[in-house]
Amino acid sequence: KTPQQLELEMVAIDQLVPKDHLVRLIDLAIDFEFIRDEVAHLYCKNNGRPAVDPVRMFKILFLGYLFGIPSERRLIKEIQVNVAYRWFLGMGLTEDVIHHSTLSQNRIKRFKDSSIYQSIFDTIVRQAMKQKLIGGYSLFADSTHLKANANKKRYDIEDLKVSPSVYVEQLNEAVLQDREDEGKKPLKCKEETPCTKPTKVSRTDPESGFMVRDEKPQGFFYLDHRIVDGKHGIIVDTHATAGNVHDSQPIISRLDRTLGTFELNPIAVGLDAGYFIAAVCHNLEERQLVGVLGYRRPS
Predict the structure, then answer these.
(1) What is the pLDDT of residue 191?
(2) What is the mean pLDDT of residues 175-201?
């Protein structure tokens, strides 16, 4: 060891973080203090040990997402040695970091089955809009497959009910409306037998879905569906489904939610060839949106 490694130095943690570091840019644009009020109803005011600051806890989760650290155990170890992370969390150089199980237990118990994640997400998007980081002129949507922690060889075959597409219901309603306008009697509805399909269900993680796609790995996956604003690539909506759900199924409902929640008025929506089906085209046209869709190559 060199003598310099054993010397005491007077230094402020702010001096050690580069001015152009991502955490500094985020800290300039987004105020995270609102989280404390959002989660107040999930804490007991007069019982139990003093709680970990929820603002700091959620900022730890943000660091894991922003810098691609999926393991909570490894994330805590990175915070112990990374000065920029400590600065972002408002920690000193010698302050102890929380145990990784604190993150896990709060996620599993305190915040489970609550809408707090969506509420925090929406508020941050609105802050980004105030900072002129979201243009709202064009949107892009796609999905990313995320591997489930499940062995693809351990599954059961179950006959699961296949629900008809929302587009089929819209077609039936349109037919009824047209016949009513022309003074015709409505068509007699046939009794539909429930349609089932043999499906692989994981014994470890039954909420995941067995994904079979061209040029993609086979196994149990989830799909992370996202809608992104075209100005700076800010994500304005994210939604998870099982890996065997087609991309075109949730896109319209998530698009409606995004436009309604943030009052955006985009002109165009960019989608790849997987979304190029009649239902998506019809719904985009109804909403007066230009669908910029990928070209389907002939087989």
Answers:
(1) 63
(2) 79
Burial class (CB in 10 A: 0-12, 13-18, 19+), 35: buried
In the predicted model, is pLDDT for residue 194 greater than 80? no
Q: Measure Cα distances from 273 to 203, 276, 291 in Å.
A: 33, 5, 11
3 state SS of 268: strand
Please say if the pLDDT value at position 29 is more than 70. Answer: yes
Question: CA-based angle 42:45:50, to the nearest 5?
Answer: 90
pLDDT at 166 over 70: no
Phi and psi torsions of 125, nearest 5°: -60, -40
DSSP H helical segments within 133-188, as ranges? Answer: 166-181
Q: Mean pLDDT of all residues in the chain? A: 89
Average pLDDT of the residues in 270-286: 91
Protein fold of 138-293: Nucleotidyltransferase; domain 5 (3.30.420)
Which DSSP helix (H) or strand (E) runs through 222?
A: strand 219-229
pTM of model > 0.90 = no
Quick one: tokens of 8?
């005491």
CA distance 284 to 286: 5
Question: So where are the chain's domains?
Answer: 3-130, 138-293
Backbone angles phi, psi at 157, to 5 degrees: -95, 120
Q: Which residue shows structure tokens 């609550």?
A: 114
| pLDDT at site 196 | 78
Q: What are the C-alpha distances in Å from 55 to residues 23, 33, 61, 226, 255? A: 15, 7, 10, 25, 29
